[in-house]
Amino acid sequence: xxxxxxxxxxxxxxxxxxxxxxxxxxxxxxxxxxxxxxxxxxxxxxxxxxxxxxxxxxxxxxxxxxxxxxxxxxxxxxxxxxxxxxxxxxxxxxxxxxxxxxxxxxxxxxxxxxxxxxxxxxxxxxxxxxxxxxxxxxxxxxxxxxxxxxxxxxxxxxxxxxxxxxxxxxxxxxxxxxxxxxxxxxxxxxxxxxxxxxxxxxxxxxxxxxxxxxxxxxxxxxxxxxxxxxxxxxxxxxxxxxxxxxxxxxxxxxxxxxxxxxxxxxxxxxxxxxxxxxxxxxxxxxxxxxxxxxxxxxxxxxxxxxxxxxxxxxxxxxxxxxxxxxxxxxxxxxxxx
Amino acid sequence: xxxxxxxxxxxxxxxxxxxxxxxxxxxxxxxxxxxxxxxxxxxxxxxxxxxxxxxxxxxxxxxxxxxxxxxxxxxxxxxxxxxxxxxxxxxxxxxxxxxxxxxxxxxxxxxxxxxxxxxxxxxxxxxxxxxxxxxxxxxxxxxxxxxxxxxxxxxxxxxxxxxxxxxxxxxxxxxxxxxxxxxxxxxxxxxxxxxxxxxxxxxxxxxxxxxxxxxxxxxxxxxxxxxxxxxxxxxxxxxxxxxxxxxxxxxxxxxxxxxxxxxxxxxxxxxxxxxxxxxxxxxxxxxxxxxxxxxxxxxxxxxxxxxxxxxxxxxxxxxxxxxxxxxxxxxxxxxxxxxxxxxxxxxxxxxx
Lengths: 337, 352
What we know:
By secondary structure, chain A is an alpha/beta fold.
C-alpha cells in the first residue's frame, strides 16, 4: 500500500458524488456537486463557514439524505447501505465529543466494540493507536480533562481503530495552536502515506490544506468552483500563470539586473533593495516571468560573480485564490469567473 | 428475580441475534479478528449505558430516595398488620400480600410509593438519553460507527429498563424478605407469584415513563426542557389528573334521581376518562394482583352479584382481570417507542 510517488496513482475512485444536492426548505446547502476522489489521495475541501462542507460529508456517511443526486462511497450508496459505508469510513466530526467521565482508553475500546472487535483486540489496538497519536501517557486519564488538541488527536485514534479505507475529517485543525496543527497534519499525512488511506478533510484554513493535500476543491455556497492540485488550481483560476523569482545576493551589479531582464518571458521587476543588517550587505530583488526561469536566473547570478544567498520561486498560492473567492464574498466573485 | 432477568437477557440476546442475522457479516470485510468474538454493537451500547447509569450520582440519589420510602412503607405495613392481628381484625388470608398494600396511615403503602416514585426513576434515567449525547458531540461520532439508529435507541431503552427491573425486583424481594423476618409468616406460592407479577407490571409501568422521557430527549435539544416536560406530565397524571376528572365528574353528573342506565353510563364514561392515565391503569392492575378480594374493576349491579360467593379470586382470574390494564400500559409504551423511533430515524445528526 506504500505509495512510491507523491501523487496518488489514479486508480479506482473511492468517493464519487454526482449532482449531489441538499436543500433545507428554500435554502440550497449543496448544489449539484460533482466530485471524484481517488484511492490513497488526500483531498482538501476548502471553503468558508456555511459553504455546505459538513452537509456534503453527512450525505457521504448517510447521516442525512440527499435531496437529489447520488453519492457512492467505496462503491456503496450511503443512503441505502449506510452500515456498510460506516464500516469502511472513519468520520471525525468537527468539535468531536467523548464521554468525559470515561478514560481515553475506555472511549476507544467502546468504539472498537461498536465495530465488532472483541475486548482484547480492542484494547490492544486502542493502546497501539494511543501511542501512535502521542497519547500513550494519557490513556488512563479521563477524556474530560483533555485539551482541545489532545481531544483532536484522540479523535484521530478513534477514527483509525476500525481500520477504515477512507477517513473523513471535518475541520480537524479548528481551535488548535499552530504547533498542534503542525503535529496533527503530520499525523494525517503519515497515516495516509503509510496505510494508503484516502483522506478527505474539510477546512477553511487554506495554508493547512495547502500543506498536506494532493488535491483541493474550492467550495463556496454549495458549489465546487475549482478542483485540482494547488498548481493546477492556480492555473485554472489565474490564466496568465506568471512566476515571480525572488533573488537575494550580495555584490549586485547593474549588469546583472539587465541580464536578468533579458531572460525569456520577462514581465517586470523591482529594483534591488539593500537588506538591513545583512553581514555581506546583500540586496533583494524580484523578477516576474511568464514562465519558470528560476534556474536560469540562478545561473546568471552566479556567472556574474555575485554571491547568491537565496533564490525563491513564488507561485500563486491559494492565498490569492482564497482572497479572490472567499473574502471578496458577495456576488462579484461569480462575475470574476 | 434472577430468573426474570436472565430470561429477559435471553430475549434480548435472541432479539439481537435476529437483528444480527439480517446484517451482512462483518468478517468478509478486511481484518479477520473483526466480527469474531466481539459483541454486537447493540450489546456494547447496552453494557456501556448500564455501567454509566450505575455509576451516576443521579441514580444513587434516586435509589436512596426509593429505598428509604420503601423501608418507611414496610415499617407502616408491619405496624398496621401487627395492630390488626392484635385486635383480631386482620384478614389472615393473604396476610403476606398486605406487606405491600397495608399501612397504619402514617406513611403511604409500598404500592403507592412505587406508583408515585417509579415514574420519577423512569424519567431520570431517560430524559437526557439522546440530547446529552447530541450536546456532548458524541452522537455523531457514535452514529458514524456501524450501528443502526434503531439499535441505538433500543439499546438506550433496554439498558435503562434492565436497571429498573433490577432495582424494582431488588426492592420487592427486600420487602418480602424483611416481611418474612418481622411478621414471621411465610408466603404461599400463589402469594409469591402475585408479588412477582406485581413487580413485572411495575417494570412495565416505569418502562412507559422511561420511553416517554426518551421520546422527549429526542424531541428537545435541551436536557432541562425534556426533564421538565417529563416531570410536568408525571405531576399532571399523578396529582392533577384525578382532580380534573373529579371536576368533570361533578360537572357532568346526572341527577341522583336519573334512570339507572344513565347513571351507569356516566360512571363508565368517567372510568374510561380515568383509565387514560397510566397511573390509574397501574393502580387498577396492582390492586387486582395484590388484593385477591378485588373481584371487579368496574361497576357491578345487584343482579350480577346475586349468587356470587364472596371469596378471593384465584391467581389466574386476577391476572385475567388486570390483563386489559397491562395491555394498555404496554400499548402506551409501544406508541412512545414508535414515535421516538420515527422521529429519530428522520433526524439529521449534526455535531452539536
